[in-house]
């Protein structure tokens, strides 16, 4: 089978809800990443054969085909097509999979996988809330589904609490993991470890004054266990708080995927090679533990041993997710989310998949490492796994 290569992988620095990126329309936010991919790689934008965009809340400013709107807002020519997809939190990781599959099949030679989510301008849950407020329908889960699974709704907060209990984690362990995420992210930002992957934008401060936006706003360098312990739990008698869960975030990301033929034709130098693409599904009620069996399958299908994987990016949707993954996979915690994760850096839903890939590839190259594995839990009990080889 033909190979698929990553030529460039970029992301915006995360913006807090109502923060530095609050004035950016999501189409413009995503367009900024598309333009940066073209500029940094030096490709002819007309050579791009498709743009695949992940976005979860495709309503309001993210409706009416956000992928095509990103292209229209960018410097790419009108001849570049686009498609918008939703695999919940794994949307842009799946966009990467679709792009790689197109290249590996020989169907296309140059595809951009991207993602965008403005959680300030299109709040999480809006696609469900708006019709319900208007008295339209009964929501996404009909009686047949609710009866089958014995629940009235599927909640990731419930799933996170279930994972903490099933895998035996204490509140103190969850908070300690959250603190480590902030400390690693702060160290990475201070050492300019993110400089290569971040697209610098013009943001605004609290007063609305223009300022350079090149640092993830969610990082709390002054975080402490004492401060985290004071936060209230989301549910009564639970362990999940705003401190040990991922942060609401505005952001965009993108990865340029090219075939070997495309590399030669356009004189491009790849920074990574796609080694394995895996997606699995399981229990939609607990939903967040699927990265565990998905990782096992990815390793088995790739023929790689865990010891061969130098770095892991496991999305920190909630602290129990990467902690359970470490425990069950038997992975080295020192290789996990080495520059911090979504608890500190934010989780811009549809943009997180390509965002994590940008961080993973550049972290591998900066450390002179070879193989990296990325995975994340997704609504409905789905998980993507991507293994890459840094070049």
Characteristic terms for this protein:
single chain; about 400 residues; alpha/beta; 10-stranded mixed sheet; two-stranded antiparallel sheet; 13 helices; about 20% strand; globular; Thiolase_CS; acyltransferase
Brief account:
Residues 268-389 form the Thiolase C-terminal domain. Belongs to the thiolase-like superfamily. Thiolase family. Helices cover 35% and strands 20% of the residues.
Q: List the secondary-structure elements in sequence, H or E.
A: EHEHEHEHHHHEEEHEHEHEHHHEE
- Helix and strand content put the structural class at alpha/beta
Shape: globular
Ranges where pLDDT stays below 50 over 5 or more residues in a row are none
Distance between the termini: 19 Å
Please report the number of helical segments. Answer: 13
Task: Provide the gyration radius in Å.
Answer: 20 Å
Strand content: 15-25%
Number of strands: 12
Average pLDDT figure: 97
> Describe the biggest sheet?
10 strands, mixed
Helix content: 25-40%
Protein name: Acetyl-CoA C-acetyltransferase
Keywords: Acyltransferase, Transferase
Organism: Sphingomonas cremea
GO molecular function: acetyl-CoA C-acyltransferase activity
